[in-house]
Write a structure and sequence with these properties.
24% strand, seven-stranded mixed beta sheet, single chain, alpha/beta
């Protein structure tokens, strides 16, 4: 689908760690991970609003929706697009599409027609998912399907996953500005990029029996959902960003790990009331933008939780996080297990410790490339490394700093 054209090799490359030697299990597809994880038919796995799904119910719902995807004529390699807001229905529909080899593309509901139409055209989508199945106002030429399904669609038999498809196949198309300020590109995200850390969770993800909650992008939601259910945890898609309502929802569902971004944390601080009784956040993970130290301190004071700055991108997923023992002030933390990092100058030469250079990363979670843009792909992916465009340096302890 995407041609990743070769680029010039790195100058004076450092010895590359062999990913084959790292403690990473063979890549799996999303539907394989979901089927392996949803083994307890009675344990609540997914919560959104007033709805909740046990492992058995979630597996059955995914298979029923996979049958609808098949019935509507969507084939392996086809793309569906949606601009709806994050929801459990969207997550289940995405998992059903992935099971059938259909590529899922979530685009911002805030895009104008001028922004949306070129991306949809580049994706080659012929089908759009809308909440009720009505025609999309900006995409009237696309066949529309509802995100949700009737409780018992007649004549539809659930379809179980097949084991014959590759984890290297595309699962998502994700809009991103990449490492440039040009118009958004579509990063092609393979199944392996969403599942590779299923048995390599960070310390904050591996709190068995806890509930994680997300307020972020769709790709981030899917990635965190895969890790959460692989660890046997519950997952809550929060339904509001209103501070008081959000805190009440987090307390009601006993959320321990909040995955969010600085804009939401600033909103939470606007609530003049103290946190509700029963809110027991242990960790708050912030991404998407830099987390100011003053904001982190204020959030820690309000909730008594450990606040973590995660570094991630659409092209490379999560790559750096703060270890449980903490990190020096201003540090991004250290690379996750399985993530190789280099800091190089413009010629690709590794710079000395403490000197600033461009941050390069290499791990099994990288994108395949940018759809229909071989030049941008060759610029970002070189010899298996993703050139992030971010300037950073590393101290003697291995901690990274912007």
């Amino acid at each position: 689908m995407v041609a990743i054209e070769p680029a010039s090799t790195l100058a004076n490359p450092a010895p590359e760690p062999s990913l084959d030697d790292m403690p990473i299990e063979p890549p799996v597809r999303i539907e394989q991970l979901v089927d392996e994880a949803l083994t307890d038919p009675g344990r609540v796995t997914l919560i959104h609003g007033d709805g909740c799904w046990t492992g058995g119910e979630l597996r059955r719902e995914i298979r029923r929706r996979a049958a609808i995807v098949h019935e509507r004529g969507l084939a392996v390699g086809d793309t569906v697009v949606t601009t709806e807001r994050l929801s459990a229905e969207m997550l289940i529909s995405c998992l059903a599409c992935c099971q059938q080899g259909v590529i899922f593309c979530h685009l911002s509901p805030q895009y104008t027609a001028e922004e949306l139409l070129p991306l949809v055209g580049r994706a080659g989508a012929r089908t759009v998912l809308t909440r009720e199945g009505a025609a999309h106002p900006l995409l009237p030429g696309l066949a529309a399907l509802p995100l949700g399904l009737p409780d018992e669609p007649r004549g539809v038999n659930p379809i179980a996953p097949t084991a014959s498809r590759s984890a290297e196949a595309p699962a998502l198309l994700a809009a991103t500005s990449g490492t440039t300020a040009r118009m958004p590109k579509l990063a092609v995200i393979p199944h392996r990029a969403l599942t590779w850390r299923r048995h390599l969770p960070t310390w904050s993800e591996a709190q068995q029996g806890t509930t994680a909650s997300t307020i972020q992008s769709f790709k981030g939601l899917l990635h965190q959902f895969c890790i959460a259910i692989a660890q046997g945890n519950r997952f809550l898609i929060t339904g509001t960003t209103a501070p008081a309502k959000l805190e009440t929802e987090l307390a009601r569902h006993r959320v321990h790990d909040l995955i969010t971004q600085p804009t939401i944390l600033n909103l939470l601080l606007e609530n003049p009331l103290p946190p509700p009784t029963g809110l027991r956040l242990r960790t708050i993970r912030s991404g998407s933008a830099a987390l100011p130290p003053a904001l982190a301190d204020a959030i820690t004071a309000r909730y008594g939780a450990t606040v973590i700055q995660n570094l991630s991108s659409t092209e490379s997923s999560q790559i750096i996080g703060v270890p449980e023992s903490g990190a020096p002030g201003g540090s991004l933390g250290k690379p996750y297990t399985g993530v190789a990092v280099r800091i190089v100058d413009a010629a690709g030469v590794e710079v000395p410790q403490g000197q600033q250079g461009e941050l390069l990363v290499r791990h099994p979670g990288l994108m395949l490339g940018y759809l229909g843009d071989p030049e941008a792909t060759a610029e970002a992916l070189r010899d298996g490394w993703y050139w992030t465009g971010d300037l950073a340096y590393r101290d003697a302890g291995g901690f990274l700093f912007f």
